[in-house]
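Quiz preparation item.
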């Protein structure tokens, strides 16, 4: 059991620090469970690389023509990063001087943040930050005067960013402020799973007990590891919700995808095969 605990500590609960091997774009999964290594990091890093290339090679219109050629060339095929790079250099053969200045080895193999940062526009973030600041600085009287207009006028991605900023804020939000947010924006009733995920995690971080049943309902209705695992992890780290989370897992495990059920079982210190608690 000691060795099992050591393995769980290393593979399941280790955080992705800036020097973690799983922060690489191209990762070595030799002797590593790919489900344990899974995260959004390679997706985000890959997206940043493509956006950076778009800006270096002539802008959106030029790069979109390249993407069409890429899709035509590799339709119904599986390729690796080096085949992609070879095609990129062939397509932009007249811009090799630019491509040769890009450190692809660092993009592919370095840990942590990318070697270069694309020029991200900030126009859509401004509204998120303004609303975030308004709620953070509001007292109870001021909060009653905040309307739903600014939030409802945002695109869903902006609403998600706003909630994410609140979740990242320390200290956690006061309980009265969470109740006010829910009353003004109707967040518990959102049908957008990304919005619900950020809202639920925000409330759990603040130990707001009215969110427990909503969180349980959420993980019971979502099958994706992306949505279920973070909420289960948050719940089991909260003494007031830990037992409820375990009980719900036992009741709903048969409806989950096997990989989702297995990974959550590890988080809950349970054996997925027998579903008994590990002591």
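Solution:
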């Amino acid at each position: 059991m000691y060795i099992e605990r050591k393995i769980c500590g290393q593979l399941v609960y280790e955080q992705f620090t800036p020097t973690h091997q799983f922060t690489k774009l191209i990762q070595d999964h030799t002797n590593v469970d790919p489900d344990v290594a899974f995260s959004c990091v390679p997706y985000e890093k890959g997206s940043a690389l493509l956006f950076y290339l778009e800006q270096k090679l002539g802008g959106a219109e030029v790069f979109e023509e390249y993407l069409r050629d890429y899709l035509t060339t590799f339709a119904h095929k599986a390729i690796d990063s080096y085949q992609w790079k070879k095609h990129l250099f062939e397509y932009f053969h007249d811009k090799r001087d630019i491509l040769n200045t890009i450190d692809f080895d660092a993009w592919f193999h370095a840990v942590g943040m990318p070697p270069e940062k694309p020029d991200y526009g900030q126009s859509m973030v401004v509204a998120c930050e303004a609303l975030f600041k308004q709620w953070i600085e509001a007292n109870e009287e001021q909060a009653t005067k905040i309307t739903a207009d600014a939030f409802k006028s945002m695109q869903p991605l902006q609403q998600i960013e706003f909630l994410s900023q609140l979740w990242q804020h320390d200290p956690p939000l006061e309980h009265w402020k969470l109740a006010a947010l829910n009353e003004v924006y109707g967040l518990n009733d959102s049908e957008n799973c990304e919005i619900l995920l950020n809202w639920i995690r925000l409330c759990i971080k603040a130990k707001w007990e009215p969110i427990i049943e909503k969180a349980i309902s959420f993980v019971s209705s979502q099958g994706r590891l992306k949505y279920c695992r973070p909420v289960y992890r948050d719940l089991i780290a909260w003494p007031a919700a830990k037992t409820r989370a375990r009980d719900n897992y036992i009741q709903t495990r048969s409806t989950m995808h096997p990989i989702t059920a297995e990974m959550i079982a590890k988080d809950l210190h349970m054996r997925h095969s027998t579903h008994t608690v590990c002591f």
